[in-house]
Structures are given as structure tokens and as C-alpha cells.
Amino acid sequence: MTVTGGPKPKAVQVADALRDDIKKMKPGDKLPSQRELMDRFGFASQTIQNGLAALRAEGLIVSAGNLGNFVSDGASPSSDVRDDIKEIRSQIQALAERVAALEERSAPGGA
Fold this sequence. Notes:
single chain
């Protein structure tokens, strides 16, 4: 379903504006900090994060953690996503094992 005529959601406004900025930038260029984007747009932190997340999902930017967000070189993000999924699965498995060990210890007759 497409909604027309109404104002765009704030996160979409952020993503659209940054897309225009990115067109003028080179791969590896750093985007403004989240604080700077909050000041620029006057939106909450979560709104800015949602706009940046949309750009990451499109492969236009990459996040370098505390270093910030950078214009992507255009390489397919699929390998990064696969690596992320593997890491998440590994962490879930480790947590499941820890929970199982804790449950075993807390059960009657456990160590």
C-alpha cells in the first residue's frame, strides 16, 4: 500500500537528505556525527539512527562503530551481513549453553 499526499516520516526525510549528500561525496568519506545530524534536522537520536539504518540496509553507508558512518565503496554488503549473522548465531549458541548450565545448577539436586 502506498500512501500519497502526506508528509514523509522523519527517518525517511533524514535518509533522503543524506542520500543527496552522499551523491556529492566519495567512498570512504565520513558522514556527520549523530549529534551533528540531530542538530541539523532537529530530530531525536532514534530517528537519526533509523535514517542511517535505512542507508546501511541499502549499502550506501557502512558503520565503523564509534568511528562513525562512512560512504560505502559500493561493494555488496551481503558478505558483511552473512558474517554478522554467523556472529549472532554464535553468540546465541553461547548464551543458550550458559542458560542451560545455569538451569542445571539451579534445579533440585543440581551442583
